Structure formats: structure tokens, C-alpha cells
Batch of 2 targets.
Target 1
Amino acid sequence: MDLQSKIIDLQQDYIHITDENEQLKKEKDLSGKVRFERPYIFLEGDPDPYCQRCYDDEGKTIGLLRRERHSSADWSRQCPKCESSFFEGENIHHPSAQISSSPRR
């Protein structure tokens, strides 16, 4: 392996370690600012919900998209990443939102 290849490998390692370090810092900063209200995750000071599945699985805060007038609910929210759906409203027979998850790709 020549010197140029070693330098490229070291640069790639550096980028990977730097990215991982940034992600760990974000997770540490979020730990005291996240609250769980079934079935959502909320960040301190933000009224909009985030996907619990993505937060639990990957530590990522993915905002949910709101969909109006779903056939079985007054409205629903969907995660653009994992595609989990959350149905809410007076037409739901359970006091909390119902969750429907599709398989991950």
C-alpha cells in the first residue's frame, strides 16, 4: 500500500469518527430534553411530535407529517423515514393514538 492510499484511508477514518462524535454529542444533548407521551416523542419547547420508533431504534428525531381526514380517524401523522402511521381523533376507540407500522425497507 503506497503512502497516498494510506492518507486516503486515514481521511476516511477521520470523517467517520468525526461524524460519529457529532451524533453522540447530539444524543447526549437530547437525553434531558426528550419526553415520551404515548405514542410520540416531544422535544423540550417544541409542540410538534417526533417518531418514537426512529428515536428508539436510531436515536434520531424525525418530525411527523400530518395528514387530515384519514378514513378511520379524524387525522393521522406519518413518519417520512420509517413510514409508521399514527391515527388520532374522536373516531378512534382507544384513548391514545393507534400506531400502524409498515415493514422497513
Note: The beta strands are 34-37, 40-43, 49-51, 65-68, 75-78, 85-88, 98-100.
Target 2
Amino acid sequence: MASESNCSSVDEWVALRDHGVNSRYLKELDALGYSRLPLDQLRQMRDRGVNSKFIEELKQLGYDKVSVEQLIRLRDHGVSGAYIQKMKERGYTNLTLDDYIQLRNRGTRE
């Protein structure tokens, strides 16, 4: 299961739980290929709203195996699966995830 072996103390588990990281969240991430993640990344992902639904949306749009750092950046900049889909419908195709972040930062809205 994702990162269970990385937790070395009860305090760390309590802190993760306070941020919403629980066994269900870890199992969902593990099923998507995100296992054995550092505790800080798990906390940041959960705090930013990176969840299995978000990762699956990206995968359906052709963005598979996105790095944890990139997932966090996408959420930080307000780039969702729906945003990418809407931009593709407007003709913004074959773009990288960084390109969608730049579009969002420049004010291109859904």
C-alpha cells in the first residue's frame, strides 16, 4: 500500500490523518500507480485536492503517469480535467500540461 512503510511514528500517522490521508486514499493512489510516496508528498497532494478522480480524468485526456509534482502544480494553478477538455474543444490541442498551466495563468478561462 502507498507509503505505509514510510510512516515511522504514530505522530506522523496522526498528522497525515489530520490532512485527510487515510487507508482508502492510499489504496486509491496505489491502484493508479502512485505507491510508496514520501509523507510530505501525500500531505501536499491531499491538501491540494489531488485525488483518484483527478488523476483518472487526466488519464482519460491522454495524460498518464503524471508526476506528483505536476499533479500538485496543476491543482495549484486551477487546471482541472474539465478545464483541459474545454480548452481542447476550443482548439487548444496537443498541448503539454505546462501549456495548460500557462493558458490558465494568462487568464484563459473555461
Note: The longest helix spans residues 39-48.
